[in-house]
Amino acid sequence: MAIGTKELAPAELDTFEDQRLVEELRKAKEELFNLRFQSATGQLESHGRIRTVKRDIARLYTVIRERELGIRATPAPVEAPAKKASKAKAKKAEEAEAPKEEAE
């Protein structure tokens, strides 16, 4: 079983866009900095969290690099359901108008 944040599981990272991956990397680095600072001042309660955050950072770097090399696919943009519904309505309207134009 992989140690790490449940939100940053490899299967979950495949669904993230490139900008979100960079943002998650920034957050993880910031958290690691804060954890190291807490450790140095003796305020850190969970030392295992440092290891977990380091692995998350490595996982993020791996996914980003694999996408650069073309090993891992970048997710296709997902349309909002409202846009799909409006496109479906527009297509139905075009189909409804097409037979009328042919009949004339």
TrEMBL record:
Residues 91-104 have a biased composition (Basic and acidic residues). Pfam families: Ribosomal_L29. Belongs to the universal ribosomal protein uL29 family. SUPFAM superfamilies: Ribosomal protein L29 (L29p). GO terms for cellular component: cytosolic large ribosomal subunit. GO terms for molecular function: structural constituent of ribosome. InterPro entries: Ribosomal_protein_uL29, Ribosomal_uL29, Ribosomal_uL29_CS, Ribosomal_uL29_sf. The keyword Ribonucleoprotein applies. Residues 74-104 are annotated as: Disordered. It comes from the Bacteria. One of its GO terms (biological process) is translation. This is Large ribosomal subunit protein uL29. Keywords: Ribonucleoprotein, Ribosomal protein.
